[in-house]
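User: Is it possible to get a 3D structure for a protein together with its bound compound? The compound here is magnesium ion. I've pasted both below.
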Amino acid sequence: MLSRKPEWAPPDAGNEFASKVVSGSPSALAKDAASTKLKQGRSYDLAALVEGVKASNRTILSKAITMIESNSPKHFELGQELLKQLLPYSGNSIRIGITGVPGAGKSTFIEKFGLWLIEQGKKVAVLAIDPSSSISKGSILGDKTRMELLSRQHDSFIRPSPSSGVLGGVARKTRESIILCEAAGYDVILIETVGVGQSETTVRSMVDFFLLMQIAGAGDELQGIKKGIIEIADLIVVNKADGDNIQRADAAKQDYLNVLHYLRNSTEGWQTRALTCSSITGEGIKDIWDEIVNFSDTTKKHGSFAARRTKQNTEWFEALINESVLHQFYQHPSVKRGLPDLKQKVADSIIPVAMAVKELLAHHH
Ligand SMILES: Nc1nc2c(ncn2[C@@H]2O[C@H](COP(=O)(O)OP(=O)(O)OP(=O)(O)O)[C@@H](O)[C@H]2O)c(=O)[nH]1
Ligand SMILES: [Mg+2]
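Assistant: Yes, that's possible. Here is the predicted structure of the complex:
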């Protein structure tokens, strides 16, 4: 197996654009033939992309995601058209966000859980949101090796975090990747994010089910409560319940259950609970899936499942409007020209702030 950087990847890109190629095997050759058909001259063949994703061709799915992750205007147009055509085939999955402090065992859990789900006949896609990746060039990339067994499965698809840009941009790309993965027939979408900064609320805003992974005795209990993360969880999993850690994990679970008793539920019609598991032995994995299935059934009956998805779409729409308008505003030549001077005048208390804003907005017209 070798890693190959595709020709359309930016020249300065790291391995995040690399696709895995199994050299010499007939199916890989067939895949390569399919992907060369994608390009007619210098432009992509949209129909081939649509068909390839729908046929669950992982090479083509990777290319489709690379396209929506690209910042070039031409790719944007094509990517949006692709999404439009695939939207009718999306939505048939459970979208699960998994967060927790570094080292809680998220990746190890996803590997074990993913393999188990595939045994149950599921198709599993793993996406990552790594808020640090713009600095560190994608630390979650290393997880491909941590999820080695899972990444070798025919029914799995693992995609590291987009490495460029601010959290907002990464979030858009992840949301669009979810749509593409669903259209490709993946019915369980797992989104890993490390519990720092704003990433938890960002992931919450794009998933149906939010799993908070904790470990016993790390002192995170209080932190989680303070930061309000426990309140947005649909399930708390105390991981590493194995060996001589079982009792402590059970005690931590009990602590969380007590705390949850006093908190508002994250999802209407659903009581958040706490469970233990070991991502090494696999103990508790089935109970976690049962809980997720129960959540899905219960909230679909209740209506909160569909209501959340609708709300997520409209909120995403509004957030994108705000982002785009702001971007356009700051990119406007006369705003760019007028801003430094007005900023200085505001800093020096020469003109009132509101007046400076009004003047800047007038520039824009
Ligand atoms: N004993 C035990 N160790 C575990 C378990 N799950 C994970 N580990 C170990 O904990 C360490 C961290 O696991 P990761 O899966 O990398 O944790 P993570 O939450 O993905 O970490 P980041 O991606 O850095 O945020 C590794 O050494 C794992 O082998 C478990 O259930 N039991
Ligand atoms: Mg990890």
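Residues 9 and 64 are 12 Å apart (CA to CA). The chain has 16 helices and eleven strands.
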